[in-house]
């Protein structure tokens, strides 16, 4: 299941998402992204637990992301408040359209309207799906840095000052932690350390009877 790598992939995604902070007036977007990352991680763990093919790993991640968005933003229109229904999916689509129009209407930092919050959670969740697939399932940790880097391109394209060095540093540390966790698992997968073990020579105790054959070799 690679639980440790799943956790590190989620942490790296969250660390990379900190670069989005210049886009919003309030910090509620981070909690929306956190829920999306947790949902994707759970979907990936389930796919690996069932030993399904790698191509189904993102399918489970996307399904878990849809369940999360449906629960948070369209629970009143879903079946039993959890299962997506045609009406709840339609509402999510309308909410995404409202968020896109609002994002184009305001200049950054934008107010955290429901549509904008949902779009942010969706974007962070999609990045989490890619990182989980590449780093955890396919063991391709280095390419997993590309979707993480893509999150920094959004504020860099919108704001002239781009991303602050502190947020960039935290994101870089998250990615380095993911690389180190992957390297540690690969080294651990080689097996236990092989060392040389010399058997100590046995020294006969004083007065002990010699072993068979030693008496004949002993000089008179």
UniProtKB/TrEMBL annotation:
Keywords: Membrane, Transmembrane, Transmembrane helix. Residues 191-220 are annotated as: Disordered. Residues 11-191 form the Protein-glutamine gamma-glutamyltransferase TgpA N-terminal domain. Residues 211-220 have a biased composition (Basic and acidic residues). The chain crosses the membrane at residues 29-47, 54-75, 112-134, 141-158, 164-181. It comes from the Bacteria. It holds the Pfam family TgpA_N. The keyword Transmembrane helix applies. This is Transglutaminase. It comes from Actinomadura bangladeshensis.
């Amino acid at each position: 299941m690679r639980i440790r790598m799943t956790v590190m992939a989620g942490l790296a995604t969250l660390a990379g998402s900190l670069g989005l902070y210049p886009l919003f007036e309030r910090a509620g977007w981070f909690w929306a992204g956190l829920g999306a990352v947790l949902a994707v991680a759970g979907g990936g763990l389930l796919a690996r637990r069932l030993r399904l093919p790698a191509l189904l790993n993102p399918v489970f991640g996307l399904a878990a992301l849809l369940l999360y968005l449906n629960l948070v933003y369209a629970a009143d229109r879903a079946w039993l408040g959890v299962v997506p229904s045609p009406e709840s999916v339609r509402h999510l689509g309308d909410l995404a359209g409202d968020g896109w129009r609002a994002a184009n209407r305001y200049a950054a930092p934008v107010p955290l309207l429901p549509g904008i919050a949902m779009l942010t959670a969706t974007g962070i969740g999609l990045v989490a799906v890619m990182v989980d697939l590449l780093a955890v399932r396919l063991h391709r940790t280095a390419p997993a840095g590309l979707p993480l880097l893509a999150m920094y391109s959004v504020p860099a394209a919108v704001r002239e000052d781009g991303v602050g060095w502190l947020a960039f540093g935290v994101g870089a540390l998250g990615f380095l932690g993911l690389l180190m966790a992957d390297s540690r698992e690969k080294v651990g997968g080689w097996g236990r350390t092989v060392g040389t073990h010399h058997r100590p020579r046995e020294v006969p105790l004083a007065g002990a009877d010699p072993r068979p054959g030693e008496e004949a070799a002993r000089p008179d």
